[in-house]
Design a protein that fits this description.
This protein is α+β, with helices and mostly antiparallel strands. About 40% of the residues lie in helices and about 20% in strands. The chain has a domain at about 30-90.
Length: about 90
């Protein structure tokens, strides 16, 4: 029996009008623009991923390709500046 992913379980707990706007795709981020098409989204987020990659350029390129012209791409990764924010985020 296939166990639903954590994301799928959380999505199932959302109201139908929210869940209906989300489509979960499991794939490597470097393949995102191939699978989802170029220039489709107003905003693309890539948070907490790049610090695990030896060469982040293919992923960054793919993620940037998903944003429509004028859209935003948000990339967050651990570094000295983001670690300094941790205590503030914890309250």
């Amino acid at each position: 029996m296939h166990k639903p992913s954590r994301a799928a379980r959380r999505l199932n707990a959302e109201p139908a009008e929210v869940a209906g706007r989300v489509h979960l795709v499991q794939a490597r981020g470097e393949q995102a623009s191939e699978l989802l098409g170029q220039g489709r989204y107003d905003a693309v987020l890539c948070h907490g991923v790049l610090m695990y990659l030896e060469d982040p350029e293919p992923l960054v390129s793919s993620v940037c390709g998903l944003a429509r012209p004028g859209g935003i791409v948000s990339i967050v990764t651990k570094n000295a500046r983001t670690l300094a924010l941790r205590p503030g985020r914890r309250g």
